[in-house]
Specification:
By secondary structure, the chain is of the alpha+beta class. It has five helices and three strands; from the N terminus they run ααβααββα. The two termini are about 35 Å apart.
């Protein structure tokens, strides 16, 4: 379980709509904050907060080019995460025919609300 903790922290940090958009954009290549600002239409300080959170868990990093910070993906798990989020699942998994322990009961297809 302890070896999963870094991945769990990565997921907890990444799973925010703005951060997913940032990661998706970085999956296309290196971007500076102004590129992200044009794309996301949110303030530079807000973008910087999201970038800092992503850097703290090792998802992204940056290099400095003059006055610009150029961000890039660092953790390869992010590409799998983005692919999974974009995947179209045609249907739900089927419910069980009965209880696996007692071998009785039936799964109600429609749950009452």
């Amino acid at each position: 379980m302890n070896d999963l903790i870094p991945r769990i922290d990565l997921l907890k940090t990444a799973i925010h709509p703005v951060r997913i958009a940032i990661l998706d954009e970085l999956s296309k290549g290196v971007k500076c904050v102004s590129d992200l600002k044009d794309f996301l239409h949110i303030s530079q300080p807000n973008i910087s907060q999201h970038l800092t959170a992503l850097r703290q868990v090792g998802i992204i990093d940056y290099f400095i080019d003059g006055r610009l910070r150029c961000y890039f993906l660092k953790n390869p798990l992010v590409l799998d995460l983005l692919d999974m989020l974009k995947k179209d699942y045609p249907c739900e998994l089927p419910g069980p025919e009965c209880c696996p322990v007692t071998k009785k009961g039936t799964y109600r297809r429609e749950q009452k609300k």
